[in-house]
Amino acid sequence: MTRKATPGTVYTALLRFHGAVEPIPMNGRNPRFDSRYATLDDIIKGIQKPLTDAGLVIVHRLEGQSTMTTEIVHAATGESISSTYELRLDKENSQGWGSAITYSKRFAISCLLNLCLDADDDGNSTDAPRSTPQQQ
């Protein structure tokens, strides 16, 4: 089914958002992999004004024991788009939950808003530290 965006829809607002959003800075550093990434704070600061100007709001809901739904809501119509993520914990404690939620928020926002976060290799390229060639 094809749906055309009409004035006053979440899709029209997303179009306005994309016309105004600037590239997101990557101020986070991962020393283990010598890489940079956009922190959740970088993303929020970069999208706050264009999102508000477009009449969009982001809502996160924790559901059940291990899922989070992120929703982009068009404030004028209530129309929304959403995505649900399974939270994966490294540690079963408050710090582990906080880390999983922050990580999921960062990726949920980036995916739903189709943000381009160049050089974001938070997947750490197969999760192995970079090694330097040994000299012989």
In short:
The protein has 136 residues and is α+β, with helices and mostly antiparallel strands.
Describe it.
The protein is of the alpha+beta class. Helix content is 35%, strand content 21%. The protein contains four helices and five strands. The chain has helices spanning 10-20, 40-53, 94-112, 124-127; strands at 28-30, 35-37, 56-63, 67-74, 80-86. The strands form two sheets. It has a three-stranded antiparallel beta sheet with strand order 3-4-5. Strands 1-2 form a two-stranded antiparallel ribbon. A hairpin with a 4-residue loop joins strand 1 and strand 2. Helix 1 packs across helix 2 (40-53). The protein is flat and about 45 Å long. The N and C termini lie far apart (62 Å). Residues 124-136 have low confidence and may be disordered.
Features:
single chain; alpha+beta; three-stranded antiparallel beta sheet; two-stranded antiparallel sheet; 4 helices; disordered C terminus
Topology:
Layout: H1 10-20, E1 28-30, E2 35-37, H2 40-53, E3 56-63, E4 67-74, E5 80-86, H3 94-112, H4 124-127
Mean pLDDT: 84
- CA radius of gyration is 18 Å
What ranges have pLDDT less than 50 throughout 5 or more consecutive residues? Answer: 124-136
The computed structural class is alpha+beta
Order of helices and strands: HEEHEEEHH
